[in-house]
Design brief:
- The protein is an alpha+beta fold and about 625 residues long.
- It is about 15% helix and about 40% strand.
- A 6-stranded antiparallel β-barrel has the order 3-4-5-8-7-6.
- Strand 1 (about 35) and strand 2 (about 40-45) form a beta hairpin.
- Helix 8 packs antiparallel against helix 9.
- The N and C termini lie far apart (about 95 Å).
């Protein structure tokens, strides 16, 4: 009784769902002794099949009243969108295995589930005894189970999700991407232990519109998070993040439900089953999706194509259908979504241009998709989609190729972020497509690491260009036409560069020296963007009190790597005051600035690099040299 009162206080109505509309329902006939299905001849329910559960209030059976030997019915989809009844026999109550004062109900499944075993995608399948909801199928035997043994999360634990605040769990499943090193694939603990145990049913993360090579390349990252990434399917209705017409009558108990990370020309979704629907809010999975806590993620319907029978890793094969709401909570005991709600996503337009061979016409394709907003997941999804897009090019693995990325990120309350870079193949052990994606993802990581605000990204436009030649030039030498000049004079010189498989290039340059340059010997830097960007990169990393506009301003100051820079090297430091670069600051002035703002970081470099000229070469510039001249 106390449990029921607590659930009512949490805002969920509690009344027998079987009583709704019973006058118009026919009395169910006795079930046959066996059922012929694609899974073979399997035992049918020994009791008459009850009506399918519907949305609305439902009576519950508290875990304290669940006893060994009780028989009930679970509902899950084996094919299509209609859930089917599965016989359930209670084995017993496994105390404290789910956490302090959190028990799990052990049960054995019959019917088709006895043939398929407890499959990925069954997470959340509701279980009823005498028409009362006891919980959701959520766990299975980890490896090689001859019997369909499952663990059931009690419904009391799932209903508590509604009253949880905005606190974030301590151990979410989020990507930890090392840019130049793949994570080691963990060995399953059950294999190390030499035995089997009950584990949460893996939520298959279905990737539709992704190449097999992409799944293979990113498999270690998913496995590091304990996520099973599989090929999936998604209909055209998934292109829009607005709830589709008819969302009010969707996601009834037992139907397939999906959380959507990416939707559109590419999609990434996690499939499970609906446990409870009170007409507005939906509970599912019976365990966490990623354990992210409060979320705003599109929620969609699913269509099951088949269930792969296996004692090792049974899974549902499914298509994700139209979006019908938004997930609001991702917790230890399940997910909670709201029908008709809209989740904010980032719309991305990605244009892919390729030159199949020098002199051939350039082809162009455009992809549109929406990305889930999260500090850790958004950068990873930008990396994943960028890499996958480049797999559409037949020559992505070519030894001689150059990739050019130009991106524009529009934000609310801040100037747009406009950046670009080039990457050539064969210069690093990391594939060039991965380097491009990692560089792009890093910019989103910097935005989302802001400690003062969460970036409100309105849209993203990115262009990827691939040319079938290695466009890189290495600086061999540089010289000045004169080395003894007056302050404010024009200083000219030349730079010799050696392109990949090409003739030597000699590039002239001319700069105007500052009029206040003191007499004596000075240094001139001629080279790539690495040294020029060092100070601004450090400023973004070290300054934790920047707001979003200041962070964008610093990112926009970073110089692209396809230009030749001529800069004056000054012995005085460059100091960053928020997003403002103060070059050539005297030591006395720097002391005053630091003493007036104690404890405030003011990152800088011991020397100042003041760019006086930059010129685009249309290819990566690598290397640097220093020239000396004298001011009279």
């Amino acid at each position: 009784m106390n449990a029921i009162l607590a659930l009512a206080a949490a805002g969920f109505a509690l009344a027998p769902v079987w009583a709704q509309g019973t006058a118009s329902r026919p009395v169910p006939a006795a079930a046959p002794a066996a059922v012929h299905s694609p899974y073979g001849e399997v035992p049918a329910l020994s009791l008459p099949v009850p009506p399918r559960p519907v949305a609305g209030a439902v009576a519950i059976l508290p875990i304290s009243q669940v006893k060994p030997g009780m028989k009930g019915v679970a509902w899950t989809v084996f094919q299509g969108t209609e859930p089917e009844a599965v016989p359930v026999e209670i084995i017993g109550r496994w105390e404290n295995n789910w956490g302090p004062r959190q028990d799990t109900i052990l049960a054995k499944l019959g019917g088709k589930a006895a043939k398929t075993n407890v499959a990925g995608g069954m997470s959340g399948s509701p279980v009823y005894i005498d028409g009362k909801l006891i919980g959701a199928i959520a766990l299975r035997i980890s490896v090689f189970s001859p019997d369909a043994i499952c663990g059931i999360t009690p419904i009391e634990q799932m209903l508590e999700i509604n009253s949880i605040d905005a606190s974030r769990p301590a151990s979410p499943k989020t990507p930890q991407v090392a840019l130049f090193e793949k994570p080691e694939i963990p060995v399953p603990a059950s294999l190390l232990a030499g035995g089997a145990t009950l584990t949460p049913i893996e939520t298959p993360l279905a990737l539709a519109g992704f190449h097999e090579s992409t799944l293979r390349e990113f498999q270690p990252y998913f496995e590091q998070m304990g996520i099973a990434a599989v090929r999936g399917g998604a209909g055209g209705a998934l292109r829009s993040t607005t709830p589709a017409p008819g969302w009010q009558s969707s996601l009834k108990p037992g139907e397939a439900i999906a959380g959507v990370l990416v939707s559109g020309d590419m999609s990434i979704t996690g499939l499970g089953t609906v446990t409870y629907n009170d007409g507005k809010r939906v509970l599912g999975f019976g365990h966490s999706f990623f354990n992210l806590g409060p979320v705003s993620m599109p929620m969609a319907k699913g269509e099951v194509l088949m269930v792969l029978s296996s004692q090792f890793q049974p899974n549902k094969f499914a298509n994700t259908k139209e979006i019908v709401g938004a997930l609001r909570q991702d917790r230890h005991s399940g997910i909670m979504g709201e029908l008709g709600a809209v989740a904010e996503t980032i719309p991305v337009s990605l244009k892919l241009r390729s030159e199949p061979a020098p002199g051939f016409p350039t082809g162009e394709r455009e992809y549109r998709f929406n990305v889930f907003v999260h500090p850790k997941w958004t950068p990873f999804l930008m990396l994943l989609t960028t890499y996958n897009t480049l797999q559409d090019l037949n020559s992505t693995a070519a030894d001689d190729a150059t990739y050019f990325l130009r991106g524009r990120v529009e934000l609310e309350g801040a100037p747009p972020l406009e950046i670009s870079t080039r990457v050539v193949s064969g210069e690093s052990p990391m594939p060039a497509a991965m380097q491009v994606g990692a560089w792009w993802a890093d910019k989103f990581s910097r935005l989302f690491q802001n400690q003062r605000a969460v970036p409100a990204i309105k849209r993203v436009d990115v262009t990827l260009e691939m040319s079938s030649s290695r466009k890189i030039a290495v600086i061999e030498n540089a010289w000045l036409d004169q080395t003894d000049v007056a302050p404010g004079a024009r200083l000219s010189g030349k730079v010799a560069l050696r392109p990949f498989r090409g003739d030597r290039i000699v590039r002239p340059f001319q700069i105007t020296l500052p009029a206040n340059l003191p007499p004596g010997e000075h240094r001139l830097f001629v080279g790539d963007s690495t040294a020029v960007n060092r100070a601004s990169t450090m400023a973004v990393m070290l300054q934790r009190d920047l707001d979003i506009p200041q962070t964008v301003q610093l990112l926009n100051q970073e110089k692209p790597n396809d230009r030749l820079y001529v800069a004056l090297i000054e012995p005085r430091p460059t100091v960053y005051d928020d997003d403002h670069a103060l070059r050539g600051v005297p030591a006395s002035v720097l002391n005053v600035m630091q003493s007036s703002s104690p404890g405030r970081p003011m990152p800088g470099m011991p020397e100042s690099v003041r760019v006086l000229d930059e010129s685009s070469l249309g290819q990566i510039v690598s290397g640097a040299t220093t020239l000396r001249f004298k001011v009279r």
